[in-house]
Amino acid sequence: MTDTSRIWLEKIHAFDFDRTVKIMNVCGGHERSITHSGLRGALPAWLELIPGPGCPVCVCPEEDIYQAIQLALQDRVILVAYGDMLRVPVNVPKGTVRTLTEAQAAGADVRPIASPTEARAIAKAHPDRQVVFFAAGFETTTAPVAALLAELTLPSPASGRGAGGEGDNLSILLSGRLTWPAVAMLLDSGSPGFDALVAPGHVSTVMGPEEWNFVVEAHNIPAAVAGFGTESLLASFYSVLRQLKTGERFLDNCYLEVAHPGGNPTALRMMAATLDVVDANWRGIGSIPRSGYALKPAFAHHDARLRFPDHSNPERRRAGEMPPGCDCAKVVLGKIYPNQCRIYGRACTPRHPIGPCMVSDEGACRIWWAGGVRVPADA
């Protein structure tokens, strides 16, 4: 721990609260930093840090994952996706392919990628194959997808779309989500379960810190934007605690070196040009108004939902829900801690994940397990 971190920690310990104070950290990256650095053990006993809805893999609708699996199996496309998505299970009968990894084992051409540029390179290398990029993520990873779309559809004399028709065989199965509407839903519920909010620095870098002003202005709750280092996180904790003590309310930017007012103008311009904001389903939670992204009609040529058959099956039970016994939705919403899930460490482990929160490195259950919490709360 740096000297600056120790100073922030001392200032936090100097506060005297006669009640439990709960701070929600929205970002999965924040939760990973907090857990792996042991911050919870260094903070006062009256302070609770609650992991929030900051894992895009965890909230990706089951029907989108099912669609990706079927595209790979039935339409024989090259299906590319970020690595975490390959192991997220869907609710299907026993013996049925339930993950993209299992589809790969069954002969489907499924490939993990780390960036949209890899999807474009694969499509260019296989001009005779259809390539589908299953793109799940929040604003930070959706912005590069928007840039990819803009590049693919730049007009040229030869094709009217991309240069020489390059990328015509690449489609996007988009499952992008906005972060703030889930927090707004919690606050609008009247029982959010937290006293202050630490907003995600990487999202604020793209969208602008001011996107989180509504937490203070509409709900009178202290808020701060934080980065991923202990110094920035502790500074944000101190800021919201001081606001609670003094009665002040403002959005504090504790990630000034990266999260600038107005966000990333180029990213915002690309997203506005290629994507619409729509109502969207969050797995286990339901539809949240204006919380998702969809390709604009002008980009229908690259929309996998329009180019390929809809493989949703109305007879599938529990579609969109978490598996039986899985409490991932409650974990995502900060209603329970990961090890309070009924199947945490029992049926559900990283080697054999049942729920999506145990799959992703941004999922709170996986993070807690990696941090050494291996015993359920009621054990």
Overview of the structural elements:
There is one protein chain. The protein is an alpha/beta fold and 379 residues long. The chain has a domain at 3-56 and 180-254: HypD, alpha/beta domain 1 (Rossmann fold, 3-Layer(aba) Sandwich). It has helices at residues 3-14, 28-36, 39-42, 56-59, 62-74, 100-105, 116-125, 139-152, 180-188, 201-207, 213-219, 230-246, 265-274, 304-307, 328-332, 364-370; strands spanning 21-25, 47-51, 78-82, 109-113, 131-137, 170-176, 196-200, 223-226, 251-254, 275-282, 286-295. β10 and β11 (286-295) form a beta hairpin. The protein is globular. It starts with a helix and ends in a 9-residue tail after the last helix.
Defining key terms:
379 residues, alpha/beta, Rossmann fold, five-stranded parallel beta sheet, four-stranded parallel beta sheet, 11 strands, 36% helix, globular
Distance between the termini: 32 Å
Main pleated-sheet profile: 5 strands, parallel
Query: Compute the gyration radius: what is it?
Result: 21 Å
Count of individual helical segments: 16
Structural class estimated from helices and strands: alpha/beta
**Low confidence ranges:** 156-164
Q: Specify the overall morphology.
A: globular
